[in-house]
Amino acid sequence: MVTAIIVGAVIGFILAMPPGPIAMANIRLGLEKSRKDCAEFAIGTASMDMIYCIVAIFAASAIHSAVDSYLVENPIVSIAFQSIIVAGLIYFGFTQFRANRVSEIEFQENPQVSSSKFIQNLKNKGPLFLGVALALTNLANPTFVPSLTIMSAWVHKIGLFPNSFNENIIFSIGFGLGNFLWLYVLSLIVIRNRHKLSNSSILRIKQFAGVTFIGFGGFIGYRLFMFTNWAQIFKYALIF
Question: Is the whole-model pTM more than 0.85?
């Protein structure tokens, strides 16, 4: 259980870093509101992300059980799957260094869901429900849940904790906790520096997220390189 919640918290913390509507709304709250408002906002988004993670981890569990024997028999497919995750994380990390300014559009809401009366009503009920509302907008992103499912499948693949009902729930709670921690820490940084926070400061936050993604991808890549049975991979490749 301890391992599951720690792994979930680390992954939740890292995956919450990409600058987007939620992160930018969090920064804006830090600039304009109090620490309590920021904490409520972080709780709202983290609660929804925990629910998303529960869905994703059980979907990944079912997928893993269905294809596990196939991956064992086809190690090249397995290593390709994990390599794509590594490459994706590192690529995303490097993209955070491209921009030289933060555009105003990054602070705007998702136009696909801004017209929803339900979403608007939630936003008007305070920071907690604003966090829930913005987290709901992730459903408009066709890559969000699949990406989370792929990451959850990778967690099962490397066997960091037992694939059981209780462990999966604990992992999801940890994921939500990690999400909350990043948003709350980010808001504290903004609040403490609100009078001197500039465009370059926000860019440094983005770059910190980029470095973290590169490091996380590098760690996964190192683990993949060190623990892969390369003799089996080369043998299988020569057969085909």
Answer: no
> In which region does residue 235 sit, left (phi positive, over 0), alpha (psi from -120 to 50) or beta (all else)?
alpha
Residues 6+ apart with CB under 8 A from 7: 155, 160, 161, 171, 174
- Distance (Å, whole) CA 92 – CA 217: 10
Cα 71 from Cα 97, distance rounded (Å) = 35
- Dihedral of CA atoms 23, 212, 12, 76 in degrees, nearest 10, equals 130
Residue with tokens 């009078």: 195
Check if the beta carbon of residue 61 is closer than 8 Å to that of residue 73: no
- What one-character-per-residue DSSP string does 185-223 give? HHHHHHHHTTTT--HHHHHHHHHHHHHHHHHHHHHHHHH
Angle, in degrees to the nearest 10, between helices 199-227 and 2-15: 140
For residue 112, the one-letter residue type is Q
Residue 40 near residue 128 (C-beta atoms within 8 A) = yes
Structure tokens, 109: 């809401």
> Closest Cα partner for 186 from 91, 53, 46, 51?
46
CA atoms within 13 A on the CB side of 158: 23
Tokens linked to 89: 């994380």
What are the pLDDT digits (tens) for 24-56?
788 888 877 888 989 999 999 999 999 999 988
Q: Using CA atoms in the order 98, 108, 198, 124, what is the torsion angle rounded to 10 degrees?
A: -150
Q: What percent of the chain has pLDDT over 70?
A: 68
Farthest CA pair distance, the chain? 64
